[in-house]
Design brief:
heterodimer, A: alpha+beta, Rossmann fold, OB fold (Dihydrolipoamide Acetyltransferase, E2P), 10 helices, about 35% strand, B: mainly alpha, MetI-like fold
């Protein structure tokens, strides 16, 4: 398996620029996720990597070999890049085994080379080999598609929203099976998705594609904790954004005086800022008469294991807190009722952004 | 059923027992009368089939063997099988190649080529035959026959293959590319396997059409089972030889029909439904587009330009320019047109009415009995027009003497021939009327008749009209049953083309042919623009 290196990749469709200056490196044997909204250009990026479309600018290298660059376009069939399309796209007229060996030379196809091994790798029973793909569930089809892509031992595997068509329960299970199979195979893989939970849980590295540009490439924790913009913060998770004043490593806002995360300091400095907190950083507690910050529960979305509580801040003298509404995510068993007045304590650090004109 | 093919070639039953009952709320049991009426219609279709078999079985083994094992039967069998095999293969090559270039390349003008490739279906084969015969007498026998049937039937391959190519999931080919397959291997290992059901199904329909074809072969003096059945029927009205041959032909056709059913069943299984799809990628032809364009131009010239051109040519000639000089008489043309239109209207009305009970049963009370009755009606597709006509003639002579050579009997024959055609549209039209809508209307205070008038008719009316129009066109262009069953003194457009061509009076035949083709082309075009391609061409497109 090999590393992937993309430099300055760009693509236009007519006058519309879909990708601009994309730089990305994926280390050998690692799994990276490309996260983006629909229309952000992530499918185009994937099709450029596969070779289904031709890039306008930039180079693509796999293991040091240029496969796409100025005046060079290695056709898809010569790239040795495995592709797992949306919903699997198994050949409907072939059995599971014939699908898996599809990309192998004739002699190996006859011998059903490594079919058992690959089925086991993706977590399917050996008895599936002779089944028609129609007899498989969506998740199983997806796993066979992965086995088919892995069979010729490609340099790189690309997965195009492989779990988006599956229902919630199956999605988690299939995600784990695919991650395990890729790890066992030691494959270098790139997963394209619009689902932030999927990107965060699967990617060792997550690259966010925004309007045709990569705006942040980071490990999942860094991306979630310190996103580069408030918009991105809201995209990768629920966000509480408040105005505040920064000063010497601390920020003062409606929720009190909070430490600023070290990694995010460079953006803030001193003065008016936007403050980012995650709802799960809020702790709610009843019965603190003299708590610094208090809120009245407006409404509750109860999910069982946890709940989202919307609160209106009350009582504080600080004019900043007037009519501020925040969301807290609390464990299900500590959920307050609408109308309750509770103390709000913020855990951990805040992230600040230069105040925009909002 | 040669001429049935002229407009609505492929009649596909839409119900399968496995179809999820999306529209259907089964509400109570169908009334006794509905079942009864539908069953009577099915029996009507079974009548000629049963009668033909009964006659064949009535001969006794020795007689039958004597009738079957004649040298002439061997020769006919060879002729028939050769033309069927050759027509099927050439149609498959021409149809599939045309479909691939239209659907998968950047061929200039491909939207026009797509229409032109399907258009020959609207030209009855005996008209094409007339054009070639009047062009050169040397174009007879096998080669002429092959040319005419391929012209007439290659759209039966083109349409389903083009639809299959359009519906193909591009992700499959892309996956194959990512697995290292080049363009040719992709075609053979990914595209062709997916085309197999469409291609095989289309080939069987071509075989069915060729087996049933009568007019085109008779005019080209190419002898097959159908032409021989006609000749023997002319010789002796007792028709023992003819009905023996008819039985053999019917069995061959039913085998084709059964295989076609099977292929269609398999194709349903082979498909995997996926969500939204991109359109499949198209290839750039580069310089290759010139020979391809020339081929399409050549194809259009041969399949459409030639028949239409010859009709125009003969229209412009004086009656005595043909081998047999016959003056064109305007009253006769008018008379034939009126006969054709009259029979067409009567046939359309009866067929649509007969299709209603079964259509209603299928739409509202699907189940085993409904499916069985539907299958029986679709058997009519496997009955060549000449077989049905012959059975009805014998039946009339033996049992219904007063009806023999009456217009009524001819209209009944049309109804049997074209019931499958009407049933598809009628059923689809009635499915448009969801019971929920009727319930809603009733809950808003409309009574049964108001509901019929204000809900059912607006929804189902256009579809029923479409069914009637399709039958009308088919009746207009029908030749075989008309020849055998038309009342004495009645001359239709098709019969006039036939008679004048047989007499080599090509100029005299031209106005009839022109009116016929004009009716067929214009009404097909009108129907397509009103109801969309699928309504007219069935599931093929």
């Amino acid at each position: 398996m090999a590393n992937l290196s993309v430099q300055g990749l760009g693509k236009q469709f007519g006058a519309h620029s879909v990708l601009r200056g994309v730089d990305l490196t994926v280390a050998s044997g690692s799994l990276a996720a490309i996260l983006g909204r629909s229309g952000s250009g992530k499918t185009t990026l994937l099709r450029l990597l596969c070779g289904f479309e031709r890039a306008d600018t930039g180079t693509i290298q796999v293991n040091g070999h240029v496969i796409s660059g100025p005046g060079l376009h290695v056709p898809a069939e010569d790239r040795r890049i495995g592709y797992v399309p949306q919903e699997g796209a198994l050949f409907p007229y072939l059995s599971v085994a014939d699908n898996i060996v599809f990309g192998l030379p004739r002699a190996q196809r006859r011998a059903r080379h490594r079919v058992q091994e690959l089925l086991e790798l993706v977590g399917l029973p050996a008895s599936y080999a002779d089944r028609p793909p129609q007899a498989l569930s969506g998740g199983e089809q997806q796993r066979v598609a992965l086995a088919r892509a892995l069979a010729p031992a490609p340099a790189l595997i690309l997965l195009d929203e492989p779990f988006s068509a599956l229902d919630a329960a199956l999605r988690v299970e299939t995600r784990q099976a695919v991650a395990a199979a890729l790890a066992t195979a030691g494959a270098t893989a790139l997963l394209v998705t619009h689902d932030q939970a999927e990107a965060l849980s699967m990617g060792e590295q997550v690259a966010v594609l925004w309007d045709g540009q990569l705006i942040q490439v980071a490990n999942p924790e860094t991306l979630y904790r310190t996103p580069v913009s408030p918009e991105l913060a809201s995209f990768v998770g629920d966000a509480v954004l408040l105005p505040g004043m920064a000063d010497q490593g601390y920020v003062t806002c409606a929720l009190g005086r909070l430490p600023i995360a070290k990694a995010a300091m460079s953006g803030g400095g001193a003065g008016a800022v936007s403050v980012l907190l995650r709802p799960e950083q809020m702790r709610l507690a009843a019965g603190f008469e003299h708590a610094e910050v208090k809120g009245r529960v407006l409404d509750v979305d109860f999910y069982g294991h946890d709940a989202c509580v919307r609160l209106a801040l009350v009582g504080a003298a600080d004019p900043l807190s007037a009519s501020v509404i925040v969301t807290a995510r609390v464990p299900g068993h500590t959920t307050p009722r609408p109308g309750d007045e509770v103390a709000i304590v913020v855990e951990g650090e805040a992230v600040t952004y230069p105040a925009s004109g909002r | 059923m040669a001429m049935t093919q002229a407009v609505q070639p492929v009649i596909r039953p839409a119900t399968q027992p496995t179809t999820p009952a999306r529209h259907v709320t089964v509400r109570g049991r169908a009334s006794f009368w509905l079942f009864g009426a539908a069953a009577c219609v099915a029996l009507l279709v079974l009548l000629p089939l049963a009668f033909t078999l009964r006659q064949a079985l009535g001969f006794g083994a020795a007689n039958a063997a004597e009738l079957v094992f004649r040298p002439i039967v061997g020769e006919l069998a060879l002729n028939t099988l050769m033309i069927v095999a050759a027509a099927t293969v050439t149609s498959a090559i021409v149809g599939a190649a045309a479909a691939w270039f239209v659907e998968r390349t950047h061929l200039p003008g491909r939207k026009i080529w797509a229409v032109l490739a399907a258009a020959p279906l609207a030209v009855p084969p005996f008209i094409t035959s007339y054009a070639w015969v009047s062009f050169s007498e040397s174009l007879q026998d096998f080669n002429g026959a092959l040319l005419v049937v391929t012209t007439a039937y290659y759209p039966l391959i083109y349409l389903p293959v083009a639809a299959a190519l359009r519906g193909m999931d591009p992700a499959l080919e892309e996956t194959a590319r990512s697995l290292g397959l080049g363009p040719w291997t992709r075609f053979f290992r990914v595209v062709l396997p997916q085309l197999k059901p469409a291609l095989l199904g289309g080939m069987l329909l071509v075989a069915l059409g060729t087996l049933s074809e009568f007019g085109a072969f008779a005019l080209l003096r190419f002898r097959t089972f159908t032409t021989e059945i006609y000749a023997e029927y002319r010789l002796s009205f007792d028709g023992s030889g003819a009905s023996m041959l008819a039985s053999i032909l019917m069995l061959l056709c039913l085998v084709c029909l059964a295989l076609e059913f099977r292929v269609r069943g398999l194709s349903r299984y082979d498909r995997m439904d996926r969500g939204a799809r991109r359109a499949p990628a198209r290839y750039h032809l580069g310089w290759g587009k010139w020979p391809v364009l020339a081929s399409f131009a050549g194809l259009t010239l041969v399949t459409l330009g030639m028949p239409l051109g010859m009709i125009v040519y003969w229209l412009l000639q004086h009656g005595d320019a043909a081998i047999t000089p016959v003056e064109v008489s305007l009253p006769l043309v008018l008379d034939a047109t009126l006969s054709s239109v009259g029979l067409g209207l009567a046939g359309a009305a009866l067929t649509t009415v007969l299709a209603l009970p079964l259509g209603l049963l299928l739409a509202r009370h699907p189940g085993r009995i409904a499916t069985l009755l539907e299958r029986i009606v679709y058997l009519a597709q496997g009955l060549p027009g000449i077989v049905i006509a012959l059975a009805i003639v014998s039946l009339a002579i033996q049992a219904l003497r007063p009806l023999y050579q009456s217009a009524a009997l001819l209209v009944v024959a049309y109804a049997i021939l074209f019931l499958p055609l009407a049933l598809v549209s009628v059923r689809a039209a009635l499915l448009q009327v969801e019971p929920r809508l009727e319930d809603a209307a009733r809950s808003l205070g409309l009574n049964r008749w108001q509901t019929l008038w204000r809900v059912v008719l607006p929804l189902a009316g256009p579809g029923l009209g479409c069914a009637a129009a399709l039958v009308f066109i088919s009746v207009m262009t029908e030749l075989t049953a008309t020849l055998l069953l038309a009342p004495i003194g009645t001359q239709t457009l098709a019969m006039q083309v036939w008679a004048d061509t047989a007499a080599l009076a090509f100029a005299a035949a031209a106005p009839y042919a022109a009116i016929l083709v004009g009716f067929s082309l214009i009404s097909t075009w009108l129907l397509m623009s009103l109801f969309g391609k699928t309504a007219v061409l069935g599931a093929t497109s």
